[in-house]
Design a protein that fits this description.
single chain, 7 strands, alpha/beta, seven-stranded mixed sheet, 21% strand
C-alpha cells in the first residue's frame, strides 16, 4: 500500500506521494468488463449475493443519518448495489461512478427508486471528474480495496465533499478469504517449493482509523463485520470470484496455476476448513467506515481537563 512509505503520524499530501503500484488497474477494469458481459450479464447477477448483503448493511448505517440528501455519489458503484437501496425519503439523485463502463451500465434505471446519473471514470482520479466542495455525501461499497493510493483517494474524497459532508465506506479487510489464501500457499509449497500472491493484500480496521484521521476526516466511526458463505468446494468459490470481477489483479501475478496445485489446494481447503456437511466456508471480512468533512458547526469534544464531575464519584 502507498501509506507503507510514509510515517503513520504524518499528514497526507496526495501530490507528494509516489504510491507503489500494487494493483494492475487496467487488468481489474478488464476483469470487471468481462464479468459484466458474460452471458449477457446473467452470470454477474447470479453472484451479486455478497455485494447485495454488504450494500444492505451499509445502507442501514446511511439511514441512521437523519438528513435528506439532494445527491449521493456512489464511488466505485458497479451496477449500483448501494444506490438501488436508496429511496426518495433519503436522497433525490444518485451519481454512479465506476471505471468499468460495462458494469456501470449493466442494469436499467428502472431498478432504482431515485434518479440516476452514470459517470465512467477512474476512482483513483476522483477530482478530475468531481469538483471540490461539491458533494453532500460520498459512499463507496466494495471498491477501495482495489485502489493503489488509498490515502490519496481518501484525501480526494474529503476534498470533493462540502463542509459537513459525510463519507461512508465498506471495503474488504485483511482476513477476507483467509481459507483460500492459506490453502493455496500450502499447496504451492508442497507442489512447487514456493508461494506467490493469489489473494490481494488488504487493509485492517486500525489502518482505516489512522488513514481517515490523517486524511482530515472527523467524527470517525470504524467497525468490522464478517460474512461467511458455504460453497460445495473450492472450485465453485473460485468460479464465483471470477464472475464477481474480483480475480487477482496484483502486479506481477502468475497468470497460470498448475492443475495439480489447485487440486492439492482443494483437498487442503476441505481438510483444514471444511464443514461437517461437506461444504467449505469462505469468510468475507468487511470494514465499515464513516467520516465527516470538518465544518465550524460540527460538535467538538471538550478540552481535556474541563470535566466538572470526578469519575470516581460516578463509578
Amino acid at each position: 500500500r502507498a501509506y507503507a512509505s510514509v510515517s503513520s503520524s504524518a499528514p497526507i499530501n496526495p501530490n507528494s506521494l509516489g504510491p507503489f503500484q500494487v494493483f494492475d488497474r487496467n487488468a481489474k477494469r478488464a476483469q470487471k468488463d468481462r464479468a459484466a458481459a458474460r452471458e449477457g450479464g446473467s452470470r454477474s447477477r447470479t453472484v451479486d449475493y455478497v455485494r447485495d448483503e454488504i450494500a444492505d448493511r451499509l445502507v442501514e448505517r446511511f439511514q441512521d443519518i437523519k438528513r435528506k440528501f439532494n445527491t449521493v455519489l456512489d464511488l466505485g458503484s458497479g451496477p449500483g448495489h448501494f444506490s438501488k437501496l436508496l429511496d426518495p425519503e433519503t436522497a433525490q439523485k444518485a451519481l454512479l461512478l465506476d471505471s468499468s463502463d460495462k458494469l456501470l451500465r449493466r442494469d436499467p434505471d428502472s431498478e432504482f427508486e431515485v434518479e440516476v446519473e452514470r459517470i465512467h471514470a477512474d476512482e483513483e482520479a476522483l477530482l478530475q471528474t468531481i469538483p471540490p466542495n461539491s458533494q453532500e455525501a460520498i459512499v463507496s461499497c466494495l471498491s477501495l480495496h482495489w485502489v493503489n493510493d488509498l490515502p490519496g483517494v481518501l484525501v480526494q474524497i474529503r476534498e470533493a465533499l462540502k463542509p459537513d459532508g459525510v463519507f461512508l465506506g465498506a471495503l474488504f479487510g485483511g482476513d477476507t478469504l483467509f481459507e483460500l489464501r492459506t490453502s493455496l500457499q500450502l499447496a504451492e509449497v508442497e507442489r512447487e517449493g514456493g508461494i506467490s500472491p493469489h489473494v490481494s493484500p488488504m487493509t485492517d480496521s486500525r489502518d482505516m482509523s489512522n488513514l481517515l484521521g490523517r486524511a482530515g476526516f472527523t467524527l470517525l466511526t470504524v467497525d468490522v463485520d464478517e460474512i461467511k458463505v458455504a460453497y460445495p468446494s473450492m472450485w465453485e468459490l473460485m468460479e464465483d470470484i471470477q464472475d464477481m470481477g474480483e480475480s487477482n489483479a496484483v502486479v506481477g501475478r502468475r497468470q497460470i496455476i498448475h492443475r495439480d496445485t489447485l487440486a492439492a489446494a482443494s483437498a487442503i481447503y476441505k481438510e483444514l476448513h471444511g464443514n461437517e456437511d461437506g461444504t467449505v466456508p469462505a469468510t468475507f471480512q468487511v470494514i465499515y467506515v464513516i467520516g465527516w468533512k470538518p465544518a465550524p458547526n460540527q460538535p467538538k469534544p471538550l478540552e481535556r481537563g474541563s470535566a466538572q464531575t470526578n469519575l470516581k464519584d460516578v463509578l
